[in-house]
Amino acid sequence: MSRYRLQPSPAQEAALLEHCGHARYVWNLAVEQHAHWQRGRASAPGFAEQCRQLTEARAACAWLAAGSVIVQQQALKDFHQAMANFFGQTHQRPTWRRRGRREGFRIVAVKASEVRRVSRKVGEVRIPKVGWVRFRWSRPMQQAKSFRVSRDAAGRWHVAFAVIPQPVPGPGTGAAVGVDRGVTVSAALSTGELLSVPPLSEAEKKRLVRLQRTLARAQRGSKRRGKVKAAIARLKAREGDRRRDWVEKTSTDLARRFDVITFEDLKISNMTRSAKGTLEAPGTNVRQKAGLNQGILAGGWGRLVTRTGHKAPGRVQLIDPRYTSQTCNVCKHIARESRKSQALFLCVACGHRDHADVNAAKNLRDTAAGHAVAARGGLPPGGPVNREPQRDLLLVG
Ligand SMILES: [Zn+2]
């Protein structure tokens, strides 16, 4: 991932915050407009109409007009992408953005001359109305068409360049793998490998608990409270960094080792919704599922699928996941009772024993290979996806 630590001067930081404020303001306006929309009424304004309204708003409001039109338009564009994701059932409905939380903005139509290297470890990027802002040149850079500037909860600034990664060549042997998302492990491969996002260390967890205790005791608005909050945010940011690194390494590894990579086509938002009951087991295990959802989100599942698709274009398949966790990979018998626990699969028909997620991963792999899992009702396997990297949908940061 082409993400770099941005190092703005105090004056630049103020200007960046102003951009964030504009992006947030425009985004929230769009959220509000769409919130008023109801079934049966004329459709909510589309991107073109909102851009026209933005022009009007800029003419009427000096504060907005002083800002960058790219920043403001891209906020609208991001909102429409978020709505498309929502309708595509891969994401939650976009909601209000609050000050200080996941702040950021996007700049598009970036020219090669707008990014430069000033020394071995320092680069600079030109941000409209802000000027050249330094960043830590911590990894090689490819030319980018757009970038996103963001500020994390710990107050660190980053710039993420949207470059489509070079496709990673596969082994060319036809090697196929199924990848099942897990909870206790982040991903289980049909090879039997169990991969996990590195969690916080024991020492870090202890520190986090201690900090949270201190926070509970600290007086509201006190200086001490602010310090503790910042320390907690830093720890959480570290966890996020590790998750992103894990996704990058794992997706590259999968693209390099296998020619066909199969994931379950499991829309994260569907899962979130199904905590209240699923197709297979309505209304059961609600508490357990709530935890499961957290595990998936924390595991960066969606990002892993997306990045693998970028690195292995045309080689990633998404498969309908129904019954993959209940089907025995050896005898194909389907029974909910075969899944003894989170970790253990023990077939009630043939006695086959495997790690439950690995068994599911093998079913995914085999389904992709055409040996369809004998599902009740005969479910069609999902078609291949991500034939080409989708430039417009690439979201970084
Ligand atoms: Zn069996």
UniProtKB/TrEMBL annotation:
Residue ranges annotated for the Transposase putative helix-turn-helix domain, each copy included: 3-36
Tagged with keyword Metal-binding: yes
Pfam family, one: HTH_OrfB_IS605
Domain Probable transposase IS891/IS1136/IS1341: 168-274
Keyword Metal-binding among UniProt keywords: yes
This protein's UniProt keywords: DNA recombination, DNA-binding, Metal-binding, Transposition, Zinc
Top-level taxon in the UniProt lineage: Bacteria
Domain Cas12f1-like TNB per the UniProt entry, residue ranges: 301-364
Family classification: In the C-terminal section; belongs to the transposase 35 family.
Protein name as catalogued: Transposase
Organism of origin: Streptosporangium lutulentum
